[in-house]
């Protein structure tokens, strides 16, 4: 890996475009390096994982709206891409929009956390959509996805967005554009322009994850993927992008991030170096924000040590800066304590999540968020006894680059009315590669089977899994779509007509 220093450069300064971060990313994307076997196997796992969470959300409102929007843009002549749940093809950017929304809706797919937060599986819908549209093969898709993961993960390692209230999809637009460039075998200059254009159009504030969190949280990465496809299309036609997009005098670093005096360090593979960043990412066992994964497992472990939950006086979760300020009481969001809050808000309330997991001893992607579940008086009472505090040691471990120290958990201190104190802690979620029950192919398939049950026929499940596991030799990438019956689709809500 090469560590690249990235800072603002005044317009009057000589700054060759070959030194721009977007150009260096483009060089990585254009490098025709083979995909390592373990990288390829993990990509297959994540394709299965994305399909699992997409079919589980297929009748929910945001994926339904996105799917109906996509259906208004049909494709013909063997072009276009597929949409989860339905046969046929639509325009590739709209397929990416629909599938990206379905994948993100339940907050249930993969994650990478470092200086920034990310769900790098969000790269799969746009890159797959273009692969289907261009009639590419499985081996091409593997190369494109390896790049998408590589670029997003390494941007996340070195450049914080949330510290400046910028949403994390600002790293996704460039990574998806780079991955599409790899997939299509584009030249460095074209990818360079596409990366810059994708960043320029996908930079937004974090209000989408603050206060009254709406369905846009699911649409945001889908929008970034759609913009990445359109950026590639424009630049393939000879159009350019604002440059230098990160380092310019009026660029992203100077005005949206840490400012013109700050220097970032972004690691990227050297020429000929394998792309392995996906191996540092991890998926979710539970449908909730990633910092909640270990805390749910901790609640399940603690449940048997507490007799009557009504005897609890208080619960304090000692955890990292991120957990405290984004999904904890440090956020200062009263909505996180409101039993009438949206699902999107509740999955960003560690207080609610810990209370329900402690009561139920499990977590379910639908039942745990049901309005009637959130409104139970005993749940509300317990929920309102829970608070979070930042513990510098958990923050240090969260930010550590040492795999032996890296942690995304916390310590629970439960005080009973009689003064008894029960404590326990957990560093990593059980499903994390370093956790108690790491996810392998067997667990990814089990998650898919569980979420597809009652939605996708057994025969269709088998067909999809066979295609995914044969990805390296797959010649028809539409086989990675999953079609459900009209009876299932009829369960989706009615939605008003839009423009299209």
From TrEMBL:
SUPFAM superfamilies found in the cross-reference section: 2-methylcitrate dehydratase PrpD
Family the entry assigns: Belongs to the PrpD family.
Name by which UniProt lists this protein: 2-methylcitrate dehydratase
Protein keywords: Lyase
InterPro entries: 2-Methylcitrate_Dehydratase, MmgE/PrpD_sf, MmgE/PrpD_sf_1, MmgE/PrpD_sf_2, MmgE_PrpD, MmgE_PrpD_C, MmgE_PrpD_N
UniProt cross-references to Pfam families, sorted A to Z: MmgE_PrpD_C, MmgE_PrpD_N
Annotated catalysed reactions: (2S,3S)-2-methylcitrate = 2-methyl-cis-aconitate + H2O
Keyword Methyltransferase on entry: no
Known EC number: 4.2.1.79
Domain of life: Bacteria
Subunit structure: Monomer.
Domain MmgE/PrpD C-terminal, first and last residues per copy: 286-472
TM helices/strands, residue ranges: none
GO molecular function: 2-methylcitrate dehydratase activity
Domain MmgE/PrpD N-terminal, residue spans: 19-263
Enzyme class, spelled out: lyase
